[in-house]
Amino acid sequence: MSTHxxxxxxxxxxxxxxxxxxxxxxxxxxxxYSFARxxxxxxxxVILVGDSASNVMAGYDTTxxxxxxxxxYHASSVLRGVxxxxxxxxxxxxxxxxxxxxxxxxxxxxMKETGAHAIKLEGGEEVAESISKIVRAGIPVMGHLGLTxxxxxxxxxxxxxxxxxxxxxxxxxxxxxxxxxxxxxTVLEKIPAMLALEVTEKLTIPTIGxxxxxxxxxxxxVMHDLLGINTEFKPRFLRTYLNMADQVTGAVRQYISDVKxxxxxxxxxxx
Length: 271
Ligand code: KIV
Prior knowledge:
Elements: H1 12-21, E1 25-29, H2 33-42, E2 46-49, H3 53-56, H4 68-79, E3 86-90, H5 100-114, E4 118-120, H6 128-136, E5 141-146, H7 152-155, H8 165-181, E6 185-189, H9 193-202, E7 207-210, E8 218-221, H10 223-226, H11 244-260
The chain binds 3-methyl-2-oxobutanoic acid.
């Protein structure tokens, strides 16, 4: 008799089934053990260990500085906190763009050293060969189209992408290429909702939107935005579910005051 509790794990096949059933997919970012555990217990389908860690954990302006080693540290912490959800880890800038051999080597390091279930990388046709190679090695790949923050210096701005027909057509073609190359899903970031609808209907793999409207097969948000930890970031697409910044500063102010006024610890809180 097995002593293990039966846990129905989310797999890449689960996501395909959810799309087929018309049931939406929930995805959130996490970068550490404690939050990953809470999100998994809450029933999230997918945790993304995003390279947004570069912004929200390390305080950089862009996602470019974070290294493969740092992503491995964040991802292995997350993996120790989850039982059920699918964990996808971003390949950071510089760890896959040079060629498909390097891309495969980076993906293998993530899978081997973190216990991740899949990797994500940014781009379309230009990374198709790398995606095919990684998928052929047995590693599930999530794509990422639209606003791809690793290319911020090419775009020059974080504004909505693919509003013009030429860029929209490239995105349509890239989405087809990603599916063909073997991606099990793709993120669509900051593109018009009608374009996201069209791509979502065309593809058999799920689309996960961020600032891409209501018609995607799922949604993803950065945990610091959703929980109101990062209060300066207020794009139109963001819904904030908690004002954690105020709650945390309020709690810590109270703690400081209790310590200063000798209100903490009290008699019950000592030995
Ligand atoms: O790094 C990240 O958090 C992401 C999401 C915004 C999709 O790629």
